[in-house]
Amino acid sequence: RRCTDIICCVIFIVVILGYIALGVVAWVHGDPRKVIYPTDSYGQFCGQRDTPNENRTILFYFNILKCASPVVLINLQCPTTQLCVSKCPDRFATYSDVQASYRYRPDQWNYFKQFCKPGFNNPRKSVAQVLRDEDCPSMIVPSRPFLKRCFPDFSTKNGVLTVANQTTFKDGRGKTRNVTDLREAANGINIVLDARSVGMKIFEDYAISWYWILIGLFIAMLLSLLFLVLLRFTAGVLFWIFIFGVIGIIGYGIWHCYWEYDHLKGIPGSDLTVYDIGFQTDFKVYLQLRQTWLAFMIILCGVEVVIILMLIFLRNRIRIAIALLEEGSRAIGYIMSTLFYPIVTFLLIAICISYWAVTAVFLATSGEPMYKIMANQTLCKYANLTCDPETFNTTNVTKLCPGAQCTFAFYGGESLYHKYIFIFQLANAFVFLWLVNFAIALGQCTLAGAFASYYWAYRKPADIPLWPLFSSFGRAIRYHTGSLAFGALIIAIVQLIRIVLEYLDHKLKGTQNSFTRFLLGCLKCCFWLLEKFLKFVNRNAYIMIAIYGKNFCTSAKEAFYLLMRNVVRVAVLDKVTDFLLFLGKILVAGGVGVLAFFFFTQRIPVFAQEVPVLNYYWVPLLTIIIGSYLVAHGFFSVYAMCVDTLFLCFCEDLERNDGSTAKPYFMSASLHRILGKKKLSSKKA
Questions:
Q1: Which of 84, 354, 503, 626 could cross-link with 56 by S-S, CB 3.0 to 4.6 Å?
Q2: In the chain, what percentage of residues exceed pLDDT 70?
Q3: CA distance 161 to 173
Q4: Which first-to-last residue range defines the signal peptide (predicted)?
């Protein structure tokens, strides 16, 4: 063997070093506090320790009517003065009313001034001047904190939008306004607040049931290992058990849905539709509707019919795939360490995700506080220009634009680094995709090399090299880093293009140009198909690299032509095998899910006292089901790679050898009887 795709290997190493340098620079300039703490109009963090705002943890907006929606308040800068306060207002009040009564009601002024600029304590100042200089808000409304920001305390009463049970309020400028003026903001806020309430309950459920979730995932791991061990001896019987087990689980689901549907008959309110009750944060409400269980039953019946029809028409091909899996089970039986290699891939991807996320946060918060002139007069020529708060009062801007202020706008900068932060974010995302795909490619090539060493051993297991998995991993790193990086680079480029297309599609959703939407839809579909095709080609190219040690392009070409010459076998064996392995994952996830369902609904008497009290029992249930599927996927992916490698080796074996003494077959006798046409010559002992 020799090193392949050296140029790409060098570029890959240089990019990694540059990626590390980018992370260091972002670490130096970034400040995650900008994400954790809201920032007032003076660029100071709310709630930060050892600062004047230490006990002022909430951001208050002088005139929230100037903010179009919660999205503006959270992501962009609202064009009004913002202060850090210790608590949100709990009453209606206007500055003009408080000023008029401060002499005989000083308590009202003492309460109101905490929402004025720090140090302002001059209730004698005229209302016009106060509002011009924005020393105090013109009004305050009952609010509650959300994302450390004060939002009006919206509620509905008999279908009418209210704030503190009132439908109107004074705006402090001589007008009485209706609460519906805030409807656009209210709709978005109420949805987000409901979602936050659900999120808090879900977090509580995780905090209570996390150890039971880990137990469920551990059971899923044991079941996956047990099934893989049994596959070595009884692949055919076990997979038929898989198939009928899935059919049985779905059948139980159909029966349970019918039982719930019939049980709710005659109960008041059960005949309502989902449309009638609308969106509810308590999802148990939907389970009290007959329509919900009828929909579940129809869906499960459809899935059951599809599976049964597929089994009827593919029964002969399934038997062929099972025989190939038996050969794969023997290979894994000799190289058991391959079952645990997905843990290595998982750790590598976890490192990539963590580094990308940290770098992205530090890049996003690496700007310096930027201040802009905010003027009440729309014709002020200095409005929105950058300013310096320390020297602003010495300029003539305040004379030309009375009431103009130099307030914090956003984080940014004028340096070369700050100008290219967006480019750095794109580079961060691109290198992240490249590294993740490289980790996947390394795993595929390593497993392929180990299983290829099994197939090409003339006498099994005597000729299988010692520590085949570690040897394959060493070869992939030492000789083929460049080839693996080349293949990963191609996938990363396509994935980045898909991300850009998704971003453009999101931005253009509101447009009425149907041709643009159609074009974007076509491009998204084409690049999705291209990514799937390239992943298929790359997977088989890595197998050929592991076998012959050639460069990426040569291996991809040879693998593609080899598969095209055996396209029927590819369609029959590869996809049917994937289907059977998918059924295995469903059975593991479904079995553990049914067990978890009986546990969390207290239907197992032995553990009834151990069940934690939850807001939503489906939170740990869904987590266990999804986690069990992912655990099973990790173990079964080794089998999928094994079958793909053995199949490619088999096709190569048929083309290179003829079964004669000079060119004997390397495949096992059972595999040759299933897939080959020529007689297998006797092998030497």
A1: 84
A2: 85
A3: 22
A4: none
